[in-house]
Structure formats: C-alpha cells, structure tokens
Write a structure and sequence with these properties.
- Helix content is 31%, strand content 25%.
- The protein is built from 14 helices and 20 strands.
- The protein has helices at 22-35, 88-92, 110-115, 156-159, 191-196, 198-204, 238-262, 267-277, 287-291, 311-325, 367-379, 394-397, 404-414, 423-429; strands at 2-3, 10-11, 15-17, 39-42, 57-60, 67-71, 76-80, 97-98, 132-138, 144-148, 168-175, 177-178, 180-190, 207-212, 218-228, 281-286, 299-307, 333-338, 353-361, 383-384.
- An eight-stranded antiparallel beta sheet has the order 16-13-15-14-18-19-17-20, with helices on both faces.
- Helix 7 runs antiparallel to helix 8 (267-277) and helix 10 runs antiparallel to helix 11 (367-379).
- Keywords: FAD, Flavoprotein, Oxidoreductase.
Length: 431
C-alpha cells in the first residue's frame, strides 16, 4: 500500500517501478500502455489529494535526481525530476544560485511541486512553476518530448503545471537567480489591524505572510526583505531556533492538537497562549533557511486562491463561520500572496492571488470544516490548490480557468489513451 504524508490518500498499485534512467521510464510507459495499465508518478507524497494514487503502475522517480546540466551564463539548472527541494541549496551553492522563491516545506520533489502548483509568498513573485523554462517528458505513447522557450514553446503554459496528466516529467530546467539573503522580521500583531492594511502590508516587503490563530484576535506576521548574497548574516542562535521552530512550533502544536481532541473547550485558551510564545524575532540568513520551516506534525490542508484584494473579507467570513458553528480549531490559518502568472492551470492565472489555507490534524475529520470554508472561497471566485483537499470537479473548475479547454486539448494530444489517468484526474479534468 502507498500512503501520502498527510494520510489522506492511499492506493494499492499492481506494480511499483523505480527506474534509474529515462530509457527505463520509456520502457515502463510503453509496457503499461500495451498491457492496459495506467501509470502514476509519485514524488514525496506531500499532496493531500489522491493525485498520485493508482491501482496500476506506481512510478517512483527517486533515483532520477541531481544535476543534469548547468548553464552558468543564463543561471539555468536542469535537474532530475526526483530531486527533492531540500537538496537544491547544496546543488545550487557552487554556482552562486538560488530559487527566486520557495514555499515553507521543502520535502517535495521538483516535479511534484511544480505539477501541483506549489508556491511561496510574495506579491512580486509567482509560484514555483513560473521558474520553469524547460522540461523533458515521456508522453502517452512512450516517446520523449522536450519543451523549452524555443522548442514546443506553445506547450509551456500547460506542462509547467500539468497535474501529472500530460506525461512523466523526467527533468526540469529552472531559471535561478543569484544567491541572496533574507532579512526576517516576525511579530505578533492584531488581526483586525493587519486586515485593515493588508493590501499595503502584502506589497510593502518582498515576502509577507501571516498566521491567524482561531478564537483569538492575534496573528503572527512574517515580513522578509531580500538582501544581496554578500550581506552580513545574523542567523538565529541554534538554541533559540530549536526552541521556537522545533519545540514550540511543532512539539507544542502536537500537544495542542492532542489536548484539543480530549478537551475541545480548552482550545481557545491554548491558542491565546500560543500567540504569546511564538513569532517575535529578527534574523538574517540564506534565503532557503528563512523560507523553509520544519513540519513534523502531520495534518491535512485545504488552500484556496482568491483575488488578493478579497482576502480581508474572506478571512472575516471564516472567523464568523467558526464562531457561529462553535468549532474548536487548533491549527492556525495561513495567509500568503503571489503575483499573477500565465500558466493555464495556475491558481494565480491572470490575477494577483491571495491564498488562505486551513488545516486540521490528520487524526481529525476535516470535511465539515473544509466544505464550509470552501463555500466561502467559491463565493470569491476561489481556485483550489491542486495538491490540497477540495470538493470540486471539472464542471465547477472549468469556468475558473480561461484556458481549461486548451489544457484538456493538450492532454488529448499527449495522452489520448489516458495512460496517466486516475480517479482524481478524471474528477477534476473530465474523462
């Protein structure tokens, strides 16, 4: 049995394949197609949806990883699809390069992260897929397809964020930037004050986000400013970093969830205590050390992208919902932003996006909470994150994406026999 990290999806594949070369991927896809089996690629299993689940061939690309090529003049690096994001700092350091932006988790593979729309925060920065300038895929008939800005370029807006529906990605070329530092300022603040200034706050610094603790009026804000790579570092002291990032942010959160399940009435008081213990520090460090946070507490997540200007109203609606339903929610709600982009299935396609993410502990049933929040998000034209839980299908999703039909047409071209299909893709893209 295969299970994802959040324990929200599982499957029993007939075969598990672990190729070590592109040629072996080709052989597997051709064999599966000839025998009537489907093929699904699995990365690190950090998607909460069953996007990688299959009863056919589960293709693990963990052995196709590392550097394939580097163009130092252009700052472009080609990586094997199974390369994990946490490997990239060491890979890129010798070339003086870094990713332009990152999310707060780095366990995913590069192919899985771009294929599901992984993003960080920053009003001037797109999701990870916007950094892709080329890739190589094995498509439905087993042939190899190279897509770059100069070769089959018309396919880039589709394959950059392809949901695993267009083929098996075997390598990805990223446009990197010169290595840089981030000056981080983390503060506890008042929710209403932050919402009143959200537009200004979200564009005043390079990377802004905040976490609201339900049942309180408090948020933890994070404001990160980019500095030159040779700027002076002022990293967190190892003890202080362990205390907040490991003990408080993870150990205490795990305890809070456990207590919340046993004694839900204690949750508001626990959340108020949490707001006083975390998120009041300044430091400067390498970009990846600021972007990424350790996540050891398993959870399930739903995240929606809405127009950035709608975030304050939507979050107020969620606060009212939680109060009216009498729920006790231990996990903070995360708010981030991203620049508009042109990738066809990007949640930020054509509009500056604000992201609102809700979570529940993996042992809790999230459905009632998530469905109610989803209804609020849909009222603001919300687009669900492709790798996080949601309850929409192709009928409701198609109107949200101007190029939805174009993407389906590319799918028909690259995988007419639906070698890469599974129930999740049938639900969100149609048969």
């Amino acid at each position: 049995m295969w299970r994802n990290w959040g324990r929200s999806a599982s499957s029993n594949p007939t075969w598990v394949a672990r190729p070590t070369t592109v040629g072996e991927v080709v052989d597997i896809v051709k064999w599966a197609g000839a025998t009537g089996l489907t093929v699904k690629t699995v990365g690190a299993g950090h998607s909460f949806t069953p996007i990688a689940a299959t009863d056919g061939v589960l293709l693990d690309l963990g052995w196709i990883e590392g550097v394939v090529a580097v163009d130092e003049a252009l700052g472009q690096v080609t990586l094997g699809a199974g390369t994990n994001l946490h490997q990239l700092p060491d890979i890129l350091r010798p070339y003086g390069l870094a990713l332009a932006n990152m999310g707060d988790i780095d366990r995913q593979t590069i192919a899985g992260a771009i294929s599901t729309g992984t993003h960080g925060t920053g009003a001037g920065f797109g999701g990870l897929a916007t950094q892709v300038v080329g890739m190589t895929l094995v498509i439905g008939d087993g042939s190899i397809l190279r897509v770059t800005e100069t070769k089959n370029a018309e396919l880039l807006p589709a394959v950059r964020l392809g949901l695993g529906a267009l083929g098996v990605i075997v390598d990805v070329t990223l446009q990197c930037v010169p290595a840089y530092l981030l000056s981080a300022v983390e503060r506890p603040e008042n929710l209403d004050a932050v919402l009143a200034e959200f537009e200004q706050r979200s564009t005043a610094v390079d990377h802004f986000e905040f976490y609201w603790w339900p049942h309180t009026d408090a948020v933890s804000t994070k404001s990160n400013t980019r500095l030159a790579g040779d700027a002076e570092r002022a990293p967190l002291h190892p003890v202080g970093e362990w205390w907040e990032d490991r003990l408080l942010s993870n150990g205490a959160l795990s305890l809070m969830c456990a207590v919340g399940r046993i004694a839900p009435s204690a949750t508001p008081a626990i959340n108020r205590l949490a707001t006083k213990l975390v998120g009041n520090r300044d430091f400067t460090d390498y970009s990846h050390r600021v972007f990424v946070s350790p996540r050891t507490v398993r959870f399930r997540e739903m995240e929606y992208a809405i127009p950035r200007a709608s975030v304050p109203a939507a979050l107020r609606d969620i606060r009212t919902l939680i109060e009216n339903r009498g729920w006790r929610i231990s996990f903070p709600i995360e708010v981030r932003v991203a620049a508009a982009d042109a990738n066809w299935l990007s949640t930020a396609h054509g509009r500056d996006a604000g992201y609102i993410a809700v979570h529940r502990h993996y042992r809790d049933d999230p459905e009632e909470y998530f469905r109610a929040v989803e209804q609020i998000m849909r009222g603001y034209g919300g687009r669900p994150h492709w790798g996080k839980l949601h309850y929409q299908d192709a009928g409701s999703l198609a109107p949200l994406y101007p190029h939805f039909a174009d993407f389906v047409a590319v799918r028909d071209r690259l995988d007419p026999g639906r070698v890469f299909a599974n129930p999740y893709l049938t639900r969100v893209l149609g048969a």
